[in-house]
Amino acid sequence: MLIKAWCYYESRILGAHHGLISTYALEILVLYIFHLFHKSLDGPLAVLYRFLDYYSKFDWDNKGISLYGPVPLSSLPDFSCAAEAPDTHDVDFLKREEFLKECAQRFTVPPRNFERNTRLFSRKFLNIVDPLKQNNNLGRSVSKGNFYRIRSAFDLGARKLGKILQVPINSAVPEVNQFFRNTLKRNHTMVRPDVQDIALDFNVERDNKASVFQMSITMGL
């Protein structure tokens, strides 16, 4: 939810109807970050940083991304070629990959006879493979101009957040609030209509602007 808030309020890169990233595509991008880096993720901000850092450096010009790893564009739409193995020392990565494949097989709806082989993977500027329908490019909504905008937003966000995470936590709150200034402005009351009010004691001095750390707990992160 924190990543979605950043994409929507801070960088304005979310919204398929505007030629930007769709919510489903964003979910797949986030799932792969958990799949690849889960052992090093210790909080919402760590997930956001990994997300921004990884995709700002991703070779979008030559590769697409799937739930199982990068896919060379030269292999698309031939999915018989396996995704490239990520550079990781996580011995459980392959076990999780098998679990993901089992889930995909279980929830994938088989195409009807007349739909078989009628649609190829449409290569665009941002190529994200739908795990439930591999010939569906979840990034097809992104235009060329918005692709460069998205990539720049990832890069700028990664550099800014990377510097913030190096600051001692007691001094980082104002920096984090500034990083999420638009999100906090839109959600300064910290009220969610879908959950009951919860009284939380953070043992910190509160002012008129709630910190992102407080908001993260309220939003269920």
UniProtKB/TrEMBL annotation:
Q: Enumerate the InterPro entries for this protein.
A: PAP-OAS1-bd-rel (IPR058920), PAP/OAS1-rel (IPR058921)
Give all residue intervals belonging to the PAP/OAS1 substrate-binding-related domain: 1-184
Q: Which domain of life is it from?
A: Eukaryota
Pfam families for this protein: PAP-OAS1
Q: What is this protein called?
A: PAP/OAS1 substrate-binding-related domain-containing protein
